[in-house]
Amino acid sequence: MTAAVLKRGAAAPRPKKRAAPQPARITLPVGATVLRRRVVIAVLALALLAAGVIAALAGVPQRMGRDFVLWTAASGYEVRHVEVHGTREQPRLAVYEAVLTGTSNAMLAADLEAIRTRLKALDWVADASVGRRLPDTLVIDITERRPVALWQYKQRLAAIDLTGKPLTTQGLVRFNDLPIVIGPGANLRVREALALMADSPLAKDVDAAVLVGGRRWDLKFKTGETLALPDTPQAAARALKTFARLDSQGSDRLLGGRFVRFDMRLPGRMVVAGPAVAEQLAAQSKAAAEQARASAAAKDI
C-alpha cells in the first residue's frame, strides 16, 4: 500500500481539474462559397439537359437546321448549275433528273453519295463522282459503259457491255461492227465468246456466236457456214485453231460455200455437210453403180 508522506506544516496538494470534452468538428474539403457555386452549376446543367431533351423531342434542332440551310440558299449557296463531264451515250436529261430530285436546291442539302447512287443506276453509267463547287455548282464526272457486242434474244437486239448488261435497243446501226451473241444467257458469257474469237485469225469472218443449250458455242460465218465447237472453252479454242489451220491450207478454203456445217465436237474429228459432200457422195454412188454394172457385164460374158 502506497502512502504519501507530508511534511509538517505543508498544505495538501489540490487535485487537477480535467478538461471538458470538445464537440467533434467536420472539416469540408471546399469552402461553403465554392460548394454553393458548384451546386448552382449542377442545377443549371441539369436544367439545360432537360431543355435539350425536350427541344429534341419537339424537333427544334431539325427545324433550326432546315431554316439555316434555307438561309444559306437564299444567300447564294444554291445549286444553279450542273456541270456534266464524260457523257457520250448517256442522255443528259436523265443525269439532271438524277441530280436534282429534292424540294430544295440548297447546296448544303445536296446528298452527294445519294446522287452518285442514283447516277450509277442509269443504263450507261459505270461509275460517277459528284463534287461541290461553291457557291452554286455541282460537278459530275461520269465513266460510261462500253458496248462490246450485240445480244440477240427473242428476235430483239441490244447493245451490251463486257458484264452482259443491256445498254440500249435504239440506234444500233452505229454498232454494226460489233460481234453478235445469240441465245438465252449468251450476254452473260460474252467475255468467253469474245476471248474465243479474239485468239483466232478467223475472227473477222465470224458473223455471230450462238450459245447452244447454255453449254457450248456454234460460230456462224459471214459466208453462211456453221462451226459446232466442243463444250469447254479450252477444247473450243483448240478446235477453232485446228479449223483455222485447215481453212488456210491449199488453194480451196473450207469457207466459201462448198460446205454448210462443220462439227468438231469430237476430239480429232470433223464431220462436214454441204453441197461438196453431196456431190462427193453422188460421185461415189455413181462410181459404185458403174462398177457394179461392169462386174455384172463381165459375168455375162
Keywords for this entry:
alpha/beta, 9-stranded mixed β-sheet, 7 helices, 12 strands
Topology:
Layout: H1 32-57, H2 60-74, E1 81-85, H3 92-99, H4 112-120, E2 125-133, E3 137-144, E4 149-153, E5 156-160, E6 166-168, E7 180-182, H5 190-198, E8 206-212, E9 216-221, E10 226-228, H6 233-248, E11 261-263, E12 271-273, H7 275-300
Parallel strand pairs: 1-3, 4-7, 7-8, 10-11
Antiparallel strand pairs: 2-3, 4-5, 5-6, 8-9, 9-10, 11-12
Word description of this protein:
This protein is 36% helix and 20% strand. It is built from 7 helices and 12 strands. It has helices at 32-57, 60-74, 92-99, 112-120, 190-198, 233-248, 275-300, and strands at 81-85, 125-133, 137-144, 149-153, 156-160, 166-168, 180-182, 206-212, 216-221, 226-228, 261-263, 271-273. The strands form 2 sheets. A 9-stranded mixed beta sheet has the order 6-5-4-7-8-9-10-11-12. A 3-stranded mixed beta sheet has the order 1-3-2, with helices on one face. A hairpin with a 7-residue loop joins strand 11 (261-263) and strand 12. The longest helix has 26 residues, at 32-57.
> Which percent band covers the strand fraction?
15-25%
Alpha carbon gyration radius: 48 Å
> SSE order, as H and E?
HHEHHEEEEEEHEEEHEEH
Judged by helices, strands and strand pairing, the structural class is alpha/beta
Question: What is the general shape?
Answer: elongated
Mean pLDDT: 82
Q: Report the span from N to C terminus.
A: 183 Å
Instruction: Trace the largest sheet across and list its strands.
Output: 6-5-4-7-8-9-10-11-12
E-strand count? 12
Tally of helical runs: 7
